[in-house]
Amino acid sequence: MTRLHDMSLTAQVRGLRDGDLSPVEVVGHYLDRIERLDDLGAFAEVTANAAVRRAAGLERPARGSLWGVPLADKDLVARAGVPTRYGSRSREDHVPAASDPLAIALDAAGAVNVGKTSTSEFGLTGFTEPLIHAPARDPWRPSAGAGGSSGGAAVAVAVGLLPAAVGSDGGGSIRIPSATVGVVGLKPSRGRLPIGSGLDSPDQLSVTGPIARTVEDAGLLLDALVSLSPFPYATGAPGAGPFVDAARRDPGPLRLGTTTVSPWDDSEDIVLDAAARDAFSTAAAWFADAGHDVTDADWHPVGYPDLFHVLWRASAARIPLDEADAALVEPLTAWLVEEGRRLSAVELLGGLAAARAFERRTVADFSRFDAVLTPALAQPPQPVGAYAGHSPERTFAMQVEYAPYSSFVNVAGLPALTLPVTADPSGHPVSVQLVGRPGGEAVLLSLAAQLERRRGPLPHPPVWDA
Predict the structure, then answer these.
(1) CB 365 within 8 A of CB 299
(2) Among residues 173, 206, 407, 431, which one is catalytic?
(3) CA–CA separation, 397 vs 267, rounded Å?
C-alpha cells in the first residue's frame, strides 16, 4: 500500500487539489512521523496544535500553489508567536511578534507550517550542530552530521518527515546538506525569487530555494517560490517557466563543461574522495551517452579565498549581539562577529568589489556552456563533533575541504543544483552539482531529471519504513 510519505510532493499537491487528499490527513500523517521518528535532529520546534488547526480551517476552493502542503520554516525565519532561536542560545527565549515576509508568503500560498527545521547558529556554518539542541544527523550514517546550514530541512525531506522543504543558501547551505543526505537541493539565481532573492543584503550571497526528493518536486516548489508575493526584490531573471515542466522535458543536446577545480585549490588542502570522483565521472559519462557535448571547462579561478574571507566575516558583523549575547553564542560565532566588526570600510568595499569582479569572470568563463558539472562535495559525511575544539581558522578550512565547490556559486550569483547519482560501497548516496547560466534554472532541472532517469530509483534511509 502506498503511504503518504511515499508519494512525491507533486502527487500530493495533485491529490489535495483534486480532493483525493485532505490537508488534515496529509498534515496529520507528517506530524505523526515527526513525533515518532525525529531523533535525527531535523526539527528545532514542532507546532503540532497550530498546524492541525490551520489544516482544519483551510477552505475550498484551494487558494495558493501550496494549498494544504505541510512545510516548516528554517529556524532563521521569524514567525509571529513561534519560538525562533536562530540556532543560538542567545535567542533561546525569543518569540517574535511579527513574521518575516517568507513566512507570510508561504501562508498566503496555502502551506501549513508544522514548525522549525534546525540550522547552525545564525546559519553561519556548513554543519548543523548548534549547542542549543541536538545536531542534525545523516540518516544513512547517524554518527555523521547532516551538513548545513539547512541541515534539519534536508534530513526532514530525506526521511519523510516533510514532503519537501524551503531552505536558504549563502555559501552552500541548501546544497551541502542535500548532497550529504542524498536529496535534491536547488540554489536559484540571484534575483530570481521575490523573497530571499540575494539582492537584499550588501554581500548578495544568500537566496531561498527548494529541497526535495525528486527533481520534479524541486521544480514544482521553485514555481511556488517564484510566485510568492509581495515582490520587494525580484528582478525577473531570464528563463522559462513553469519550472516543473522543465523537469519533465528532455533537454536536447547541450554543451556541458566539467571541472574538478575549486577556487580554494591554491589555499587549502582539497582532496577529492574516490566516491565523489566516481560520481562526477559517472555523471559526465551519462551525459555524453545522452548526446551532450561534454568538455573540460578549463577553469582557472584566481583571487577567491581573500574576497570570501571578507564576505563571510562581514555577514557575521550584521548579527545583532550585545555583551550579554556574546557570552552565550558559540566561540566561532563570537570570533566571526568580532572579526567582521573590525573590518574597515576600505576592506569591506574592496571585498565587495572583488566579489563582483569574480562574478563577471566566472560568468564569462562558464558562458561557453549551457551548464557546468562539478562534484557536490569533496569528502564523505564528517562525524558529529568533527569541527569542535579547533581554532576558527581551522574550522573554516575544514568546511572548505568538505565543500569546496559551493560558495563560489553564491558569489557569482549563478543557479546550481545538487542531486545523488551513485552510491558508495556502504550504500550511501553520492551527489554531483550542476551550475547554470544566470537565470538558467530550467536547463538545470531538465538536465538533472535526465540524470535522475538514467540513475533510476535510489533506496531510502532505513528509518523511512519505520
Answers:
(1) yes
(2) 173
(3) 9
The residues with which 144 forms a beta bridge, in sequence order, are 383
Averaged over successive runs of 10 residues, the pLDDT of the chain (466 residues) comes to 92 95 98 97 98 94 84 98 98 97 94 98 97 97 98 98 98 98 97 89 93 98 87 57 91 98 97 98 98 98 97 93 91 95 96 98 98 98 97 96 98 98 97 97 97 95 94
Burial class, 288, CB count within 10 angstroms (exposed 0-12 / middle 13-18 / buried 19+): middle
In whole angstroms, give the CA distance from residue 303 to residue 311.
Answer: 13
Residue pair 37/29 in contact by the 8 Å Cβ criterion:
no
**Angle at CA 198, nearest 5°, toward 352 and 241?**
135
Cell 503518504 sits on residue: 4
Q: Enter the pTM of the model.
A: 0.97
Is residue 445 within 8 Å of residue 215, measured between CB atoms? yes
Check if 116 is active-site: no
> Looking at 149, 150, 168, 406, which residue is catalytic?
149
Active site residue 149: yes
Choosing from 65, 74, 99, 120, the catalytic residue is: 74
Check if 446 is active-site. Answer: no
* Alpha-carbon span 253 to 415, nearest angstrom: 20
Rounded Cα gap, residues 194 and 198, in angstroms: 10
